[in-house]
Amino acid sequence: MNHEFDTIRKHVTSVLGQAGSHGMDHVKRVTRLCGQIGEEEHADMAILIPAALLHDIARPIEKTQGIPHEEEGARIAEQYLRSIHYDENHIPAIAGAIRTHRFRSKELPATLEAKILSDADKLDAMGASGIARTFMRAAEHGGGIDDAIAHFHDKLLKLGELMYTGSGRRIAKTRHAFLIRFLEALDEERRGAG
Questions:
Q1: Is it the case that residue 105 has pLDDT exceeding 80?
Q2: Mean pLDDT throughout 119-134?
Q3: Which residues contact 56 (CB under 8 A, 6 or more apart)?
Q4: In this predicted structure, what is the pLDDT of residue 106?
Q5: CA nearest 69: which of 58, 80, 81?
Q6: Rounded CA gap, 135 and 138, in Å?
Q7: Where residue 158 falls among pLDDT bands split at 50, 70, 90?
Q8: Radius of gyration over alpha carbons of the chain, in Å?
């Protein structure tokens, strides 16, 4: 199984590259979170880990063609997994998890593995990693500090309430508190205090 995961990881790295707010560094953190939460929640790792590795595979296509990456990513993942002869019984569940992982997904996650992937992806948008990614994202879109702060309020501060698993809620509580402390410190510095 680890050999298959390594094959998938290498493929995803070749598509996404290492850096960026949705690069391979993000995928690795989400995969680690999925491993941690999946173990605690007794998930099927043969579904969860490939879904985590492939969840953003279509980000470059979304960026260039405007196609929602969760929908195109599910299609690409199915095709790719069949090309490497991954267990056919797991492919529909992997694609379903990818299709429903996004904050703005039209469909809600239906399986435990899909719920864990959704939680892990949201958790990587919170805490210290989430803060770093938010400023990277703002810069990638030509924005600055004000754009990043708007993103905190539009999305990040809402994520803690959207967790599906007990493990996700526990981790989110700590990361949400860190976001609040950071925003308070940033606001204080920007007002010239301290």
A1: no
A2: 94
A3: 16, 22, 26, 27, 69, 73
A4: 79
A5: 58
A6: 5
A7: very high
A8: 17
Confidence (pLDDT) at 16:
86
In the numeric block, which tokens belong to residue 75?
Answer: 């299609």
Closest CA to 156 of 169, 143, 172, 167: 172
For residue 24, what are the contacts with CB-CB under 8 A and spacing of at least 6?
A: 12, 13, 16, 17, 18
pLDDT at 18: 62
- Angstrom distances, CA of residue 76 to CA of 89, 149, 176, 178: 17, 33, 33, 35
- pLDDT category at 81 given cuts 50, 70, 90 is very high
Tell the residue number behind the tokens 């990587």, with chain if given.
124
* pLDDT tens, position by position, 6-24: 999 999 999 887 666 677 9
Q: Which domains does the chain have, with CATH numbers?
A: 2-190 (1.10.3210.10)
Query: Could you give the CA distance from residue 129 to residue 125 in angstroms, rounded to a whole number?
Result: 7
- Transcribe 55-111 into DSSP letters: TTTTHHHHHHH---HHHHHHHHHHHHHHHTT--TTTHHHHHHHHHT-STT-SSPP-S
Give the position of tokens 């267990």. 87
